[in-house]
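The data are quoted verbatim for reference:
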Amino acid sequence: MAKSKHYRHKNGAMYLMLAPYLLLLFFFGILPAIMGVLEVPKPSMANADGGWDAFSIVVQDFRFAPAFRHVMGFMAMFVPLMIIFVIGMALMLDIKPSPWKKWLRMAYIVPASISGAVAVLVWYVILQPTLSPIKGVLKWFNITESSQIWQQKNLVYILVVMAFFAAAGNWILIQYGSLQSISTEILEAARVDGCSVFQMALRIKLPLISKYIIYMSVLVFAGGLQIFVEPQLLNGGIYAGIADSWSFDQLSYNLAFMQGDFGGASALSILLLIPSLLGALLVIFKTDMFEGATGHAKKKEVEIQGH
């Protein structure tokens, strides 16, 4: 009886702690998604008849294919660069204790504290030959005018650089933290068996933090797919027209607020939600992300000892 009361008290405390998150999830996640689905078939200024064909209409929009190419080109560079660089830097930061580590961690987090809007202004100055602190480097590449850089064909590379430096620092620290969860007993056993630093990283550390890498990959993919702030600010605040409807989110914004096509904007938003939702389901059901840390460590330890 006492045990039953203990469990009820424990579950009550858990639900009480979850309640604020569940309320925010409902009002700012689930409810907007439902409203978006219900908005799709409604008539709008651009689609007077309305209907569920809003999905096919938005896919056939003349701006959809260019936005698809832009975003896929961005993702093809941004996602692998983030994963490889972040994991590599986190592993190097974890190699051995050093009094400089706290300063290195601060050096990683400072660039990440710059929001996307501020990053646009920072990189505008950096890539402006007359203002840049690296004007010598730009001059070495024969870049003396801003028009040589700020062109539509260069946008994907510029946006990759902006997004990378805005996000990499946070993820390096997160993955460094995941490496700290590895049992020292496992690492010591690997050293006794003659593991080199490279073997330790490749065969011991990476498998043990694989769930965190998958989690990061899903969030980086979702964030890259929904890039909006950087091209929108470039288009509206620095060079008008250089990135008009460059990304999917920009196209959705233009459909809703420039053309009054809220059904088409909702349809496009739902199309963007699907891959992110599939990625979240992958993390939940195909990894042990939500298993207890002790159980996960024991399972990996058994696997390593078995080899």
Notes: Residues 59 and 71 are 15 Å apart (CA to CA). The chain has one domain: 63-306. The chain is about 75% helix and 0% strand.
